[in-house]
């Protein structure tokens, strides 16, 4: 039995369980009825997930792209033997096409990097922690309260950090009300600027950091997209990003 045939078999079994009515169970034990109702609900979800997996697997087979199954998920099988989950569903043709194009690369590393870039939305806002985690060696305590404050994007008040007019006017950051006070995300342009500052070695690093900044494939894609917009920033911000 081929992998696609196994998916179809499991899908049919899940549909059969999902379609089973309580009256067909042949008993009136409340505990069992409750359990069977829960199993039926889970089977409905499982059947939907398998239908998605089948649709994607059929597209992969048509495109002659290697894949493997992990439970109810479909994964690309890269040329180095590793796997990466296929994102989206068959109805999101453009998203799948970008991933399929990434699989045309010649090595597993190239495929993996291209798949990461394919999932990047360069204009999206991102949590500052998401950005910081991708800049190896950056000092977490100094990233917001030193770097972003001294750059003029945040102000440090006794009651907490606040976004400045500079950050707002140039659409660098966004502020949100959280349970424990305001929190901040960086716009696509703000993300690109922060990363450019990192590459220019203008963001405080930890004492253990060695070898300077290290490029990140996801942030590289965002930076390339916003490269021209960086030139329109004020001189001080461009200088920090080494665009003076």
Q: If you had to describe this structure to a student in words, what would you say it looks like?
A:
This protein has 244 residues and is of the alpha+beta class. It has two domains: 3-118, no CATH class; 126-240, no CATH class. Helix content is 50%, strand content 14%. It is built from eleven helices and eight strands. The relative contact order is 0.08. The mean pLDDT is 92.
Q: Name the shape in a single word.
A: extended
For the CA atoms, what is the radius of gyration?
24 Å
How many helices? The count is 11
Q: In percent, how helical is the residue content? A: 40-55%
Count of DSSP E strands? 8
Kindly state the mean pLDDT as a whole number? 92
- The domain tally reads 2
Please state the structural category.
alpha+beta
Give, in spatial order, the strands making up the sheet with the most strands.
1-2-3
Q: What percent strand? A: 5-15%
Which regions have little confidence, pLDDT < 50, spanning 5+ residues?
none
Can you summarize the main beta sheet?
A: 3 strands, antiparallel
Order of helices and strands: HHEEEHHEHHEEHEEHHHH
Head-to-tail CA distance between termini:
62 Å
Highlighted features:
single chain, 8 strands, 244 residues, extended, three-stranded antiparallel β-sheet, 50% helix
Mind sketching the topology for me?
Blueprint: H1 3-18, H2 30-62, E1 67-70, E2 73-77, E3 83-85, H3 93-102, H4 108-118, E4 126-127, H5 128-133, H6 140-150, E5 154-157, E6 160-163, H7 165-169, E7 173-178, E8 181-186, H8 188-199, H9 217-225, H10 227-230, H11 235-240
Antiparallel strand pairs: 1-2, 2-3, 4-8, 5-6, 7-8
Helix pairs in contact: 1-2, 3-4, 8-9
